Amino acid sequence: MNSAPSTIISRFLQSRIVWPLAGLALLLLFNFVFDRAFFEVSTRDGNFYGPMLTVMRLSVVVMLLAMGMTLVIATGGVDLSVGSVMAIVGTLTAFLAVKHHLSFPSLLGVAISVSLAIGVFNGVLISCVGIQPIVVTLIMMVLGRGVALNITGGSPLQVVDSGVLFLGKSFIVGVPVQIFLVVLVFAITVILCRKTAIGLFVEAVGDNETASRLSGVNARGIKVLVYIFSAVCAALAALVSIGDAGSVDPDGLGQMLELDAITAVVVGGTVLTGGRFTLLGSLIGALLIQTLATTLIRQGMDSAYAPVPKALVILVVCLLQSQKFRAQIASLIGNFRKPTS
Amino acid sequence: MLAAAITTFTGCDKKADTQSANPQGGGKKLVVGFSQVGADNDWRVAETKSIRDEAAKRGIELKYDDAKDDMSKQLAAISSFIAQGVDAIILAPKVETGWEPVLKEAKAAKIPVILVDRGIKVSDESLYATLIASDFVAEGKMAADWLAKKTGGKANIIELEGTPGAAPAIDRKKGFADGIAAFPEMKIIAAQSGDFKTAKGKEVTETLLQKHGKDVTAIYAHNDNMALGAIEAIKAAGKKPGQEIIIVSVDAVKAGFESMVKGELNCAVECTPLLGPAAFDAVDMALKGDKFDKKTVVQDRVFDQSSAATELPNRKY
Fold this sequence. Notes:
The structure holds 2 protein chains of 2 kinds.
Chain A: H1 3-14, H2 18-34, E1 42-44, E2 47-49, H3 51-74, H4 82-100, H5 104-127, H6 133-152, E3 157-158, H7 162-169, E4 171-172, E5 175-176, H8 177-194, H9 198-207, H10 209-214, H11 219-245, E6 247-248, H12 257-267, H13 279-298, H14 307-321, H15 323-340
Antiparallel strand pairs in A: 1-2, 3-6, 4-5
Chain B: H1 2-24, E1 31-36, H2 42-57, E2 61-66, H3 71-83, E3 88-91, H4 100-108, E4 113-116, E5 130-133, H5 136-151, E6 155-161, H6 167-180, E7 186-193, H7 198-212, E8 218-221, H8 224-236, E9 246-251, H9 254-261, E10 267-270, H10 276-288, E11 295-297, E12 302-304, H11 305-311
Parallel strand pairs in B: 1-2, 1-3, 3-4, 4-5, 5-11, 6-7, 6-8, 8-9, 9-10
Antiparallel strand pairs in B: 10-12
């Protein structure tokens, strides 16, 4: 074997985002072979339109959740409350717009304030009181759903605010607005994490909290910060989701999306035990999940069995990410080759 | 010990009192216990109100318990009703299984149990008197009948199913399939689950409209929430909901009515929560010892754009 290509390949293989990218490429290849119409892009009223764009647009909600979830998971925690935060924020903003005719800036203010409060609640109970993240956020998940249901008595509500509808339905230079939003949030997060010390602190807390505290990192502050960030991301996701759907169902909004967000993070290459993280990987993970969902719908897969291929794809990507698994496969192949060659 | 003994005694005395008092008083006051699974949505709130109002109308004392979606609380509530010696129990069960022990207690105490809105699975059907509920299969059939009439028996349909495995999803699918079977030109060209959720209903419809394009002429959704999502997807695809694509759904909640009034949703088959009158009819029959069916179907109504505006002000849920 030549040494030059093998180093490039090995360096490529060491990058965390290579496996979710490989999974995505496989799915696209499947569609290229069996469903060429998947790639059709047309313009209507100057806006781009087509299955691929729909996939990108629909994956924005989980992308936003996954960015918050990435930082939480990097500190060694988890946030199960994001789906319920979406339900509270979505229902409350729709309700205030219908009943009290609040303007979009006020609605945005309410959405951010409510999510800030929930983030502080989660963060303080976890970092200052010392309750496990899964317990605190599970409480908030159950409580939040109840709060959301009580705002309207569980009935669905129309979304009437033009600002919220703009976030979910409109286009800028032919591209859906929410794609710009997710790029903006991603850019800000990456700058904050990589150009300041915050990202380093998050990884330090996730790697070894005690050591990071002893070396002067404000571990508690960092933890509260990531839960606040996660809740704010969920609030933005809620606005995008209800703007897109045009109405709110308090019992269904955001339900189970916390699991999709966690899946996106894990598939994207961030390990659940905390430490190093990749925001880009999580975005690719979210895109992978949505591409898969759309592919299954287009293939007419019976909904009762659709979770099976979803689980398989996730399993394969996670296995490929495991160095140990790759080493075992490599040695298997090696053993197989020796006698023949 | 002594205190406990006294309480037990007084408890027994009270029960003996009410039982002996009943035949004496000319207008005997029945006591009925109602165990509601939860009050987390307006449909259940309307159901509870219907049962409360009907009890008040008939001069029946209603003991109400809200189990807050907790099975163990619901079991405890029924045990407590039995201990209080109520004349009958109305139960809106959380799940299908796990009721046998407590229903055996009720049967031993000769207290009839009337189920409302959901059925249960028991090995011995004599453990409950009857189930008062909408017939989900009939709802699906009514949706199909309406659509057949509207489209002249010719439609290419996208079916938005409920959560896989859920009873309403299974039955509404079956009823609809039965209904369109008579019309060879009514075809379901795609059927996918939207999990009873608005956002998922929109996602599935949007994707299916891209795939099947111009072929789609109708959408049948297992609940209003998914239909509302589908309407947005149709608009996003540059088509007119209610005109270019006909939409039929089940549930007929307030938001569905608002959409019909706007001219977007075409038809909603009601799944009524107003089970009070039928439930107390069943209580009467059970106490008289009459024999009646194990399932009492409540008649659901069909609303379309022509009848929606008049009914909208009456919709509380």
